[in-house]
Amino acid sequence: MRSYAVIETLALALLFETEPAHGQQAAPTQLPVAESALARGDFDRAVKLARDYTSHHPGDWRGWFVQGRATLARGGTGNTHRVAAIIAFRHATWLAPERAEVWDGYGRAGLELGNADGELILHEAYQRVLAIDPLYANAWENWLKAYRNRSDRERMRRILARHDSIPAVRARVAQLLIEDEQYAAADAVLDSLLELDPEHPGWLALRAESALEAGDTAVGTAFYDRALENADRDGGEVLWEQAIGIATPGEIRAWEAGIPPSARFGFLRSFWARRNPDLFRDLNQRIAEHFARLRAARKQFPSTFPLAGYKTRQLQRTLGARPTAGEGLFYQRCEARQFPTGPARAADVARMSPEVESLLYDPAIEATWRNSVLPPGELYVDPKVAGVLDMPYARDLRDVDTTAAAIGYNLRTGLDDRGLTYLRFGAPRRRTIGSLNSVDPFCQLPDLERWEYEDIGIVRFFRPEAVNVGAAAPSASTGELVFRPMSDRQFEAMEAVLTRNATSVPAPLSFGVWLAQFAGAETGMTDLVVVTTRGAVAAQLTAAAAVAGPPLGDTTGLVVLQAAPGWYSLMADARVGDTLGRQGLTVSVHALGRDWGTSDFLLAAAWPDTLITRSAMLGRVQRDLIFGTGATLRAYAEIYGLHPRDGRVEYRASYQIYRTSDVARDALREDLPGGVELSFTRSRPSTGGPVAEWLDITPAQVPPGRYLLRLEVMEPRGLQVIGRAQIGFEIHSR
């Protein structure tokens, strides 16, 4: 059994600081009173009473246990109260080693203490708890927060093996086998469990993870789909724990706020649908890609110091998030300049004072450095100069949506910041370890990494403890490489890593996409027309916790999706040959059909028939919205909510054809002066359904150029607007 002599030496006096005078006895009822004070939140009184009790009843584990709980609950500044609580709980474990609750208190105090000492305590405490009661509340979850290597997992499997008659315990053994990449052994355990309950979502999810990490995509996907279908049952939260590493801050907030079990399937299905890298394929490749990345990140970039205060305490993270002056100097000497007197970016030079410039290169000091015995990262600085070193990059992690950090990306995934980046964006295009400055001995550190991605730029990682410049040593300990941007672009890359994720499936095809909404045939539903400017199309709508339908594809470049009114994410893919393109946007689907309103426009080249229908327009729609000179355009929209009288409806239709250099800008304008205006009073036959409104635009009205077409529909007297539609198009000389 480990002994924590240093902790005990620091806190021993605290345990007896309120020892009663000689001869005074603590009443037997003192402990229940202390427990009552603890229950009602009177922590000072609870601590005092518990200390009085233990001073006279040192052999009663209950007194030490209450003292530890009260001391931890009371809190304080620094680690004093945590250490005192640890010692109290330690006494309780000596006196009652068979009781799981005393080890749990000891472990919780170690978790709060954090860092290396807390991690040792956490391991010992929860090994003992799980050996006594493998289903003790939160014991397994707390043990998972500590760093664990292969030997730690082997030791825990031996402990859990004592309780292998409990299915939930066997599932934990399978989880540890997966982490050790012993997939065949994990499959055997999980298959035996699934014989007991074939639809248990947690066991199915682990079985899927084992298969996908081993590279068996077909089997893994089948198990994962079954797990999703049963996500509403107990065990469905395993699916979230597997996915949280690539969740956006908004998704984390939504889940942690409380997704009811009945909504888990829709939430998780939508979660993965938004990440589908190729809507033309039957299987969502992103799921298999995620688990393949997870395996690689777990092996290469585990969080070796998960309980460092930088990661577990908001205050320490706030204090340590800003790069230190020493780090700033390292960046200037070793990265902005790759050799002494070498070029530096103008933005970096502007931040330098003359004193700092002399630290970057001074011929007299340089000769001393070359003959110095100082290790890399160490630099002695004149105290008079040290005061001007406070020049670190001004933005830091506090300027990002820190939901990910607060919830605990690192703790929940067991990955360091590099592993998190790998999980979310895959392997970088280029990974550089160490400084490119090979001349300056101060720069020869392996504690710098720069990961370069095509779409987000350079993500910079650094271990703050690696540099010590005079009195400007790091103020917080992290123990491992962490996000450390030192320029605006690096900050934006870090922000992308913390708030986004991406597939590695390439999609280089450039294309445009435009939308048109119409009332659906089913009451309360809307038809969303999705048109791509080139290639075949596949599209899908997802909401925050639901999927409107499966992906729809068509070689004509146009599909019609159905959805109820609301906000959605739209994914639209285009394909030309083997080349894929991908776009995503947020869409507000409107309620159309019952009240006054208009649909969006469709544009096509005119044809002789004047019996105009939506289906006829969809069959001829101009996908790129570009027409040749001399073509007659046909514009089509639908009007809703008109009530027929004697089988007819009446309304006024006003068109504006406005020449523009920026369609998006002018679409927001209320008035479009100077354009061509066409107004008509319409009287059309109607049976009460949508009314087709169309107009042929002749070549004389639209010479070559870019245009915004706007339609405003009003009731016959022109006193009330029924609806408005608008669209941009272009006339080319071709």
Layout of secondary structure:
Elements: H1 5-15, H2 30-39, H3 43-56, H4 61-74, H5 80-95, H6 100-113, H7 115-132, H8 139-144, H9 150-161, H10 167-179, H11 183-196, H12 201-213, H13 217-229, H14 237-243, H15 249-258, H16 261-273, H17 285-300, H18 309-312, H19 314-321, H20 325-336, H21 346-350, H22 354-360, H23 363-370, E1 378-379, H24 383-386, H25 403-407, H26 409-413, H27 417-425, E2 430-433, E3 448-453, E4 457-462, E5 468-469, E6 482-483, H28 488-499, E7 513-519, E8 526-532, E9 536-543, E10 546-547, E11 552-554, E12 558-563, E13 566-576, E14 579-589, E15 597-598, E16 602-605, H29 614-620, E17 626-628, E18 633-640, E19 648-659, H30 663-666, E20 676-685, E21 691-697, E22 705-714, E23 721-732
Parallel strand pairs: 1-5, 17-23
Antiparallel strand pairs: 2-3, 3-4, 4-6, 7-8, 8-12, 9-10, 9-11, 9-13, 13-14, 15-18, 16-18, 18-21, 19-20, 19-22, 22-23
Helix pairs in contact: 1-5, 2-3, 2-4, 3-4, 4-5, 4-6, 5-6, 6-7, 9-10, 10-11, 10-12, 11-12, 12-13, 12-14, 17-27
Overall description:
It is a single chain. The protein has 734 residues and is of the alpha+beta class. 41% of the residues lie in helices and 20% in strands. It has 5 domains: 1-146, Tetratricopeptide repeat domain (Serine Threonine Protein Phosphatase 5, Tetratricopeptide repeat, Alpha Horseshoe); 166-300, Serine Threonine Protein Phosphatase 5, Tetratricopeptide repeat; 309-499, no CATH class; 513-589, Immunoglobulin-like (Sandwich); 597-732, Immunoglobulin-like (Sandwich), CATH 2.60.40.10. It contains 30 helices and 23 strands. Strands 9, 10, 11, 13 and 14 form a 5-stranded antiparallel beta sheet that branches. A 5-stranded mixed beta sheet has the order 17-23-22-19-20. The N and C termini lie far apart (86 Å).
